[in-house]
Amino acid sequence: MRGRVSPLMLLLGILVLASVSATHAKSSPYQKKTENPCAQRCLQSCQQEPDDLKQKACESRCTKLEYDPRCVYDPRGHTGTTNQRSPPGERTRGRQPGDYDDDRRQPRREEGGRWGPAGPREREREEDWRQPREDWRQFQNLQNHRIVQIEAKPNTLVLPKHADADNILVIQQGQATVTVANGNNRKSFNLDEGHALRIPSGFISYILNRHDNQNLRVAKISMPVNTPGQFEDFFPASSRDQSSYLQGFSRNTLEAAFNAEFNEIRRVLLEENAGGEQEERGQRRWSTRSSENNEGVIVKVSKEHVEELTKHAKSVSKKGSEEEGDITNPINLREGEPDLSNNFGKLFEVKPDKKNPQLQDLDMMLTCVEIKEGALMLPHFNSKAMVIVVVNKGTGNLELVAVRKEQQQRGRREEEEDEDEEEEGSNREVRRYTARLKEGDVFIMPAAHPVAINASSELHLLGFGINAENNHRIFLAGDKDNVIDQIEKQAKDLAFPGSGEQVEKLIKNQKESHFVSARPQSQSQSPSSPEKESPEKEDQEEENQGGKGPLLSILKAFN
Which of 287, 314, 341 finishes a domain? Predict the structure, then answer.
């Protein structure tokens, strides 16, 4: 039986097609207004917003993306690289340790102070270890941690926000007043260099640089609580590039919640700039926005507001806070005597124990290391903690030792096919990986992997230790805490080429512990000692040994 289409049905079909075409044309009015695909897709997504206020806020965000060369589309309104999820008002850079710059598989360098066109004094930089590649699957502990570095000019305020992540921040430089608030309590602390503070998930916080002349630098580690490796910042107030989360609620909900007319709520809480009068109030309230930072996350404040914001802030005493058990109490990393100290350097450490509930439930430790110019932190390793290290000050060199299997040079698929054979017997090669360090660099010290750090200028390091409970720092040289010295003489006889007596005599040559002069004693005493090799020769030797470059490259050794 052959089907027949009546003229009426044909007419209805034409009308439906015309309606769909008109609707599509109506929903895409911005396609001709921008050539940036990112902004175009963002504007198209705004048509799906059911509420006019939400749609307007969405369009406001999208239009700012048109001339942003870094724009990458995100339906939530965020911008940045494809592996970061950050508020649009923050300058961030996320990168995974498995990322490479070129086909030669040379790893990228994570350098401080070089992350795009952001202003050099007000920015946030983010290190992202989410969704590691197959090559990094054994470093799964990193997936749920992100490092953020913040730098702000004098007399500026990082606007209030909360996040679905636990945060620990450490003051690297300057003077800050940090306020933390929940539903029924608010605390403000005056923090200086070396002070740390935990900001629990869901707590609103804001950071003030109260100094008149000095920039503020803060390092922060974030641990998401909802989705591993992913967190969102929520801002109660709107600014140029971000919307208040209050705009997500319906008009009826807002009117009922605030017991006020919607126009008043919108005028007081939701609008960015409602005209000259409000703009004038904004200038009186916040002074002038920085010319280098238009994101709206960090704003300039007046002297009067600095005084008001610091009026009730508490200072951190050397003995610590008197309120025991409060996870929002600040921590003084330099409290008391250093854990390790001599003329060449010192190390302070705060461990996750009952004395430090701020760190205990996170199983995290904080470490502050200061190495004098020309000194060496002796080869050592952490027994179980993986440490993310931020270079706070100075320059130096780092060496890390790893064991690679020859079969790692082959493809992962071929390696897995021969896994049984590999377990039975494969050549293991000890390789040295090096990194040149400078301020702002971030690197990783995997557990149980020996490292040594050489300071070419006075070097200050800040470490965030993960999985830190019952961790031990074990040294491989030096007069004290030397694990090789603990090996019985008979075992030394069997393990080393020299006799046990010769090994013990060699160990006793080093009279210092933990930190020593980086210049070998034999060089300083022997006039016939060869001159130090040129950097080019050292680089060539390091390539032959197995890996020249920054420490993030070292991760590729651990397949």
Answer: 314
| pLDDT at residue 211 greater than cutoff 80 | yes
Q: Residue 311 is encoded by which pair of tokens?
A: 């009026």
3-class SS shares of the chain: helix, strand, coil, % to 5: 30, 25, 45
Q: Are residues 198 and 142 in the same domain?
A: yes
Q: Which residue has the higher pLDDT, 15 or 506?
A: 506
Judge whether 230 and 84 are in contact, CB under 8 Å: no
Residues 446, 299 within the same domain: no
User: CA-to-CA distance for 365 and 465, rounded, in angstroms?
Assistant: 5
Q: How far apart are the first and last CA of the chain?
A: 66
Name the nearest CA neighbour of 241 among 446, 480, 470, 57: 57
Pair 461, 392: CB distance under 8 Å: yes
Domain shared by 269 and 348, yes or no: no
The answer to whether residue 468 sits within a structural domain is yes
Give the range of the structural domain holding residue 219, as residue numbers without chain letter: 109-314
Which of 273-277, 510-514, 535-539 tops mean pLDDT?
510-514
Residue 230 has pLDDT above 90, yes or no: no
Continuous segment of H or E residues that includes residue 459: strand 459-466
C-alpha to C-alpha distance for 236 and 376, rounded to whole angstroms? 48
CATH code of the domain containing 261: 2.60.120.10
Nearest to 349 by CA among 336, 363, 330: 336
- Contact partners, residue 26, CB within 8 Å, separation at least 6: none
Domains identified in the chain, total number: 2
Q: What is residue 553's three-state secondary structure?
A: helix
Q: Which amino acid is at 446?
A: P
Q: What is the pTM of this model?
A: 0.69
Token duo for residue 242: 């971000």
pLDDT digits 0-9 by tens, 332-350: 999 889 999 999 999 999 9
pLDDT for res 522: 60
What is d(CA 311, CA 531) in angstroms, rounded to the nearest whole number?
59
Q: Token digits for 100?
A: 């490479």
Domain check: are 395 and 297 in the same one? no
Pairing of strands 331-332, 176-181: unpaired
411 and 545 assigned to the same domain: yes
Helical axes 52-63 vs 37-46, angle rounded to 10°: 180
Q: What is the pLDDT of residue 521?
A: 67
Cα angle for residues 39, 40, 44 (degrees, 5° grid): 115
pLDDT, tens digit, 9 for 90 and up, residues 70-128: 454 443 344 333 333 333 333 333 333 333 233 323 333 344 333 222 233 345 555 54
- What's the rounded mean pLDDT across residues 451-477? 96
Specify the amino acid at residue 464. F
Question: Residue 378, SS3?
Answer: strand
Q: Based on the domain organization, do 157 and 243 belong to the same domain? A: yes
